[in-house]
Amino acid sequence: MNPVQLHTAGATVVHSSPFSTLEVRVDTEMLAxxxxxxxxxxxxxxxxKTDAQDFLVKNFHLVSVELISKLLANFDxxxxxxxxxxxxxxxxxxxxxxxxxxxxxxxxxxxxxxxxVALATMNSDESVAYLEEYLSYYLTQPGLWFDQAQxxxxxxxxxxxxxxxxxxxxxxxxxxxxxxxxxxxxxxxxILFTQxxxxxxxxxxxxxxxxxx
Length: 213
Description:
The model has no long low-confidence stretch (mean pLDDT 94). The longest helix is centred in the last third of the chain and has 27 residues. The radius of gyration is 17 Å and the shape is globular. The N and C termini lie far apart (46 Å). It is an all-alpha fold. 63% of the residues lie in helices and 0% in strands.
């Protein structure tokens, strides 16, 4: 991919990390037009919009492992975000490792929030471990303004759900990380993340109801 293609795909920050060698399936070819028009265009801005939710309720029966894999492998933040949304509402736990590794690699911007939602919906030892591993490293990189707030919010959400206190051990590193980020507010991030999780649960309910009728 040339620099313009990389930038368009969301690879806007060049960085090296201990996770750059984590193996993930990557397809740098342009996504098939049918997939782009049918799935990416309606969903990549998020599943909080009514039109996106209506689309998923109507077409959820077409969501498959093959579809998610094609979207997740594409080197672009848009199809990867859509894939993470589909994992969130379908509960396909077999994608936990793939999504966790993509979060750790952070090859493209914008998709990290969707990865965090997907990992939180899994709520497994593995998915929580990926969030913790992400924070353990990226909170020590104050020059990388990535998805630290979303990961902290996801872990805080899961703490409340699971009655745990995992996020507390990152509080000191978080305070140091945001020292030069005056507009970063964890409480606001938690509110937004919690709403995202409510959107997922509401959508699951609509999908289940539609399937039963």
